Amino acid sequence: MTDNIKLADYLFTRLRQLGVGSVFGVPGDYNLRLLDYVVPAGLHWVGNCNELNAAYAADGYSRINGLSALITTFGVGELSAANGIACAYAERSPVIHIVGTPPRPLRTSRALMHHTFADGEYGRFAAMATHITAAQTALADTLTAPDKIDWILQQALIHSRPVYLELPDDMPGVLVSAANLKTPIRIPEVPSPDHEEQVLARIVDRVYSAKQPVILVDGESRALGILDQLDTLIKTTKWPTWTSVYGKGLVNESYDNVYGLYAAGFGDEPSKEYFESADLILTFGPHYSDTNSYFGTTIPKDAAAITFKDSTIQIESDVYQDMSPARVLADLLKKIENDSRVVRQGGPPKQEVTTSDIKDTDVVAQNNFYRLINPIFGEGDIILTETGTAAYGGRFFKLPPKARTFGAVTWLSIGFMLPCTLGAALAKRELNQASGASNQTTLIIGDGSIQMTAQEISVMIKEKLNILIIIINNEGYTIERVIHGRKQAYNDVPFWRHTQALNYFGADEEHVAQNTFTARTCGELREVLKNERVHSGQGVRILEVMMDREDVEGPLLYLLNKQKAEEKEGK
Amino acid sequence: MTDNIKLADYLFTRLRQLGVGSVFGVPGDYNLRLLDYVVPAGLHWVGNCNELNAAYAADGYSRINGLSALITTFGVGELSAANGIACAYAERSPVIHIVGTPPRPLRTSRALMHHTFADGEYGRFAAMATHITAAQTALADTLTAPDKIDWILQQALIHSRPVYLELPDDMPGVLVSAANLKTPIRIPEVPSPDHEEQVLARIVDRVYSAKQPVILVDGESRALGILDQLDTLIKTTKWPTWTSVYGKGLVNESYDNVYGLYAAGFGDEPSKEYFESADLILTFGPHYSDTNSYFGTTIPKDAAAITFKDSTIQIESDVYQDMSPARVLADLLKKIENDSRVVRQGGPPKQEVTTSDIKDTDVVAQNNFYRLINPIFGEGDIILTETGTAAYGGRFFKLPPKARTFGAVTWLSIGFMLPCTLGAALAKRELNQASGASNQTTLIIGDGSIQMTAQEISVMIKEKLNILIIIINNEGYTIERVIHGRKQAYNDVPFWRHTQALNYFGADEEHVAQNTFTARTCGELREVLKNERVHSGQGVRILEVMMDREDVEGPLLYLLNKQKAEEKEGK
Questions:
Q1: CATH no. of B4-182
Q2: Which residues of A194-216 are buried (b: 16+ CB within 10 A; e: fewer)?
Q3: Nearest Cα residue to A247 out of A269, A236, A231, A235
Q4: Is B436 assigned to a binding site?
Q5: B455 vs A454: CB contact, 8 Å cut-off?
Q6: Does the model's ipTM exceed the 0.90 cut?
Q7: How many angstroms from the chain centroid is the CA of residue B235?
Q8: Residue B402: enclosing H or E segment and its boundaries?
Q9: How far is CA A523 from CA A334, A354, A358, in A?
Q10: Least CB–CB distance from B493: residue in A47, A80, A288
Q11: Helix or strand (DSSP H, E) at B66
């Protein structure tokens, strides 16, 4: 029979079919044989510095590419990746976590192998994975392996969350049937429930009758696979459109009717008034964590909201189950596209952003920095703002078309954004290959966060990615300082010489000298930003900007002032 | 009532009572209020660069000190630490993992908080911890909190493994009863089972009648709390004594009858012959993983062995349950101490170590490096050899009295040893405070492993610890190369400039210049080792030595040659 294929080739063929171009991970005793097949399968192998970084990078790659793969080794490797997998779960990034496990005979005989607790138990780590992945499977024989692989990959796509695949070290080379490979893996359509027509009719009715309708795009819209439809909806209706923190970058901010982030009482007053008096809020992909919803204040009231989420649509307080939001949205668009009766122009005045008030002698600070760097972002670029002051400041960037941005949504694991930047930049480069386009990826990160995962800069260098890393050096965990313990030493971090990063992490000596920058004043920052190497350079560049330890804005300033008031009261 | 105390003070008082001097961890939203109490309680706070490093450091501290504490935050922090906690479980290090969790009202109301999956579930991460900790508890009210704390601390001591303690963010300041604090926490004595006398009699009989008895000290002897008794036994009997990889450093290698590591067919032939023909092998704290037992070849045969482990003693094939090995050993010593009839001198010839054959023009290599550096170790020093070639080479060091060493036992998570070094050095400095003694800690680590956790060097610098880091630069994961894929690119790592480490990680400029060294030849290495700054310096020093990509010895050489043979056969 010619219809057989080696197991590893089967798996990697499936990954290629689903658009995966690179695989992240770290080699380990129980995955080396699997790794032999990665490059021959036409996949690029990204060896990361450690597994947490690899998981973060796979997450970033998936957010841009739609799917990613991570290979770790049993126990030591997979557990190091756990927090990264949990991050992908919380923020809906489909990552195939492939764990190379000890060969089957060792497991069957309960051998006391290394990377176990030397007690014959082999099921512990898979049991742990059930809590942070959407589905799990363990390959154990050649008969069932292909179906198991197909099932687990489909689960990742359906849930848009990580899944867990155990692959014993004695299996990469075994033959399995290749028959399935002729049928692509797809998310199946759900049947139309009886109430679908009624739901659509209610929505259409509300859309036509609305006097002051708005659109709210939250981040789970990505997982719903409706971004193109949303673009059509926004263009068709011309309704004022906002995003959440999580949804930012999923809509085209260059349209006149797109306002960027909705921040309720933490944003501008006219927007808040308009949003709160809307009689219809079409809401997509809601994700109502405290951090993504400004403590719940941005959540639309039931009376105005029609909400599209995974398998439900909610109209006022009626929750309709077993829906396909994508199909309902498509049906809605068929009815209203090119129908000018749905158009509602107007909306609150847009906030103008200017930098003319910023003097060259001003020190770089939260209230000027983001405005000054915003112009360097180009169409299709990626901007990542790490949890901390960067994520708060980066929320109000005006994004060019097709630009994507990641901020602090819900998981908020500091250290995440740096490896995520590696993965996102790599995915973008691969997606650009057909068009020949080139993009910049910019990471803005604090001096506390960067200490968590800094070594991954060396992989960015090795991969020759065009990444600008802007380090906000404010001497510690400023975000924690404003939450609690603003003068406590536990919020300090060790002193690092960030301008030595490229040197330590192995960039060419000439590159190091020409691509490391610092700025303390706005004049210096303006000068640096004019440098072509900074805004459109090659390879990794470092820009360190100094800010005050307690320099914060928005909700963080609110928390800081609250803490200061409590100090005065002697609490 | 004056008999009340704040919860955090209760916990930290208990830790102080049990000899904990420093606490490791990373601040996070849900533990900041707890951190307020650390320093006022007289504990030193070590803020680590990330949670995995913190867990590794806590493990190292515990191996020297006997107990340690780690504080992380809910979800993001604790999951990052998971692999470090698992390491402590596998190799029996009691670490109190304290997780700051969201305030109780948020949990009760299933609020969609950050650091959760925004689905109202708060039990996931605690469920994961059940697989990698010996006991778990969640503080939830003031009535039961003190007993729960006492119980969890006792469990850590009993099992000599990590435990998991959830402490809600609204509880550090609540009052609890201080009554328990008057009673120290101890490991309770187990009752003597009926068969204890018979067991002791059988052992005594065998001890007197043995013609060629030997002692084997494995690593779980530390968890059994019998190290002082073992020292007496070794001195009393003068029997030839070996250790496992895990047991190395637990016995005084300066005694004439102590031979160091027993490696069966991977060690010297006379030792193997002597060990295998012994008619009695008193075996303590066995831990028979493949890596700690040279694929099982060092495990004594049942016919000769009497084995002391947790709660059992095995004589030939008879396993006696419910024993206290420490009590039986104490009773044995009472009977045989000062009784010359148990003395058996002799044993195989000791292998002499010489460096006179090493030429100054020789390149530094596995077969000369360990012999050349061995003389710099002093009494009470700590030597850590990271998984990889370093761990294999370091097994044959001749250790000075009271020196401790950690090598590759079972968990073998690369990256572990560097933060472990931080924790071990800190514990040693604290233990030395009373005597005023000073010790060096030396880490030997490969260029692959160091990339996993390198940032912790900055914490070593901040803590002003006297640590020599020797980096074996052999251009990648040499240990993985010899296992599989010796020419595969996945075993490469990014190029780093290790001599820039102290500079990047913030050491004083003068210190950087005077404490960074390299050696390519044995002559250079000899010269460097003469430098007082290297062998007895202050602060962190870096020594980079270059070795060949495939330079290995012992079992690793065996694996390499096997792979080369397979390549020839075209496998």
A1: 3.40.50.970
A2: eebeebbebbeebbeebebbbbb
A3: A231
A4: no
A5: yes
A6: yes
A7: 25
A8: none
A9: 52, 16, 9
A10: A47
A11: none
B77 marked as binding residue = no
Name the strands in the sheet holding A22-25, side by side, starting at the edge strand that comes first in the sequence: A44-47, A22-25, A68-73, A95-101, A163-168, A136-138
**Mutate which of A80, A91, A491 to test chain B, going by most B C-beta atoms within 10 A?**
A80
Q: For residue B474, say whether it is annotated as part of any ligand binding site.
A: yes
Dihedral sign of CA atoms A315, A319, A325, A330 in order: negative
pLDDT per residue of chain A (571 residues) written in tens, 0 to 9: 469 999 999 999 999 999 999 999 999 999 999 999 999 999 999 999 999 999 999 999 999 999 999 999 999 999 999 999 999 999 999 999 999 999 999 999 999 999 999 999 999 999 999 999 999 999 999 999 999 999 999 999 999 999 999 999 999 999 999 999 999 999 999 999 999 999 999 999 999 999 999 999 999 999 999 999 999 999 999 999 999 999 999 999 999 999 999 999 999 999 999 999 999 999 999 999 999 999 999 999 999 999 999 999 999 999 999 999 999 999 999 999 889 999 998 899 998 889 999 999 999 999 999 999 999 999 999 999 999 999 999 999 999 999 999 999 999 999 999 999 999 999 999 999 999 999 999 999 999 999 999 999 999 999 999 999 999 999 888 988 998 998 999 999 999 999 999 999 999 999 999 999 999 999 999 999 999 999 999 999 999 999 999 999 888 998 999 999 998 887 6
The residue type at A123 = G
CATH 3.40.50.970: which residues of chain A? 4-182, 366-568
Nearest to A376 by CA among A525, A515, A253: A525
DSSP result, A236-257: HH---EEE-TTTTTSS-TTSTT
* B214 close to B275: Cβ distance less than 8 angstroms: yes
Q: What distance in Å separates the CA atoms of residue A552 and residue B183, rounded to the nearest whole number?
A: 48
Tell me the C-alpha to C-alpha distance, in Å, between residue B428 and each of A2, B22, B399: 64, 11, 17
Query: B79 and A75 in contact by Cβ < 8 A?
Result: no
What are the tens digits of pLDDT across the range B92-110?
999 999 999 999 999 999 9
Amino acid identity of A117? F
At the topology level of CATH, where does A196-342 sit?
Rossmann fold (3.40.50)
State the span(s) of chain A assigned CATH 3.40.50.1220.
Answer: 196-342
Q: Are A19 and A434 in contact (CB under 8 A)?
A: no
Decide if domain B366-568 falls under CATH 1.10.940.10: no
**CB-CB contact of A63 with B66 (8 Å):** no
- Residue B352 CB neighbours (<10 A): 5
Measured on CA atoms in the order A252, A256, A258, A264, is the torsion positive or negative?
positive
Q: Flag if A290 and B496 touch (Cβ within 8 Å).
A: no
Chain B residue numbers with beta carbons less than 8 Å from the beta carbon of A513 are: none
Out of A118, A289, A458, closest to residue B494 by CB: A458
Quote the tokens at residue A83.
């927090």
Question: Cα(B344)–Cα(A512) distance, rounded to whole angstroms?
Answer: 66
Q: Give the integer Cα–Cα distance in Å for A120 and A112.
A: 6
**If you ran DSSP here, which 8-state letter would residue A521 be given?**
B
